[in-house]
Design brief:
Helices cover 60% and strands 14% of the residues. With 250 residues, the chain is of the alpha+beta class. It has two domains: 164 residues, Beta-Lactamase; 70 residues, Orthogonal Bundle (Arc Repressor Mutant, subunit A). Helix 1 packs antiparallel against helix 2, helix 2 packs antiparallel against helix 6 and helix 6 crosses helix 7.
């Protein structure tokens, strides 16, 4: 395999190689924009990504001109890349000079930066659009269908990689939260056992005492449990609070 097909294959292989355990989002996206510029034969590539609030940010660009132009769109809430993100469909402007009515501020800035056309491709998976991959050229004219298909494939690779990374991160957070809950439950169970043994009371009564002590002093139940397990003087304090009813369980 030689020529453009070889370059394209190498690009996707290189991007796939970055999807490893130590996946770095910024490095991946910068690599994608640089390789995308080369493969597609465009003059610059920019990438906008939405945060968890839905606010777009410039995450990567193959050139400083593209980065500044992407920022300009965000600051002025105008441009094909924003339209692409909000609609979830590609936006093609093959002649910026003819689009001054649609994006008066953006077209002036883009033409001033030396660009004549832009193709904005959605980063979308099913109903979720997470950003946009934006292709800038210094000559007017639309990219051919093959180039647009490759550009959309690059946008899709980026989307899948980012959503996978986010899902992995959220899964790790969920696992950590579950483990924390289990550890908390274990500490409370241990504290119930310690208090029941020390005071000679039922385990259920011990839990009621722990809960009451925490509530009366505006403390977290887990903190009281840790104190009891570590043989803190609080154990003696809680036992001293025992009533006759607590002792008899009636």
């Amino acid at each position: 395999m030689t020529g453009p097909e070889s370059t394209l294959a190498q690009t996707f292989a290189e991007l796939t190689d970055t999807l490893v355990a130590d996946f770095d989002v910024i490095d991946f996206l910068h690599r994608l924009t640089r390789r995308g510029q080369r493969v597609l034969g465009v003059d610059a590539v920019g990438l906008l990504l939405a945060d968890h609030h839905g606010t777009l940010n410039v995450l990567a660009a193959s050139s400083e001109q593209a980065r500044v132009l992407e920022l300009f769109q965000l600051q002025n809430a105008e441009g094909p890349c924003l339209d692409c993100y909000h609609t979830g469909i590609p936006v093609v402007c093959d002649d910026l000079a003819a689009a001054t009515d649609r994006w008066p501020l953006f077209t002036q800035e883009a033409i001033g930066a030396g660009f004549a056309a832009v193709h904005a491709l959605p980063m979308r998976l099913r109903d979720e659009t997470v950003g946009g991959l934006n292709l800038f050229t210094t000559s007017p004219g639309a990219l051919d269908e093959d180039a647009l298909a490759v550009g959309q494939a690059l946008a899709d690779v980026a989307t899948i990689a980012l959503l996978h990374e986010r899902a992995s991160r959220e899964r790790n957070v969920m696992i950590e939260q579950l483990q924390s809950a289990l550890n908390s439950r274990l500490a409370i169970e241990q504290a119930k056992g310690v208090l029941a043994a020390r005071a000679g009371i039922a385990v259920g009564t011990a839990f009621d005492l722990l809960e009451r002590h925490a509530h009366d002093r505006n403390l977290r139940l887990l903190d009281v449990a840790h104190a009891v397990v570590s043989d803190d003087p609080v154990v003696t304090e809680i036992i001293a609070e025992l009533s006759d009813t607590d002792r008899t369980g009636r």
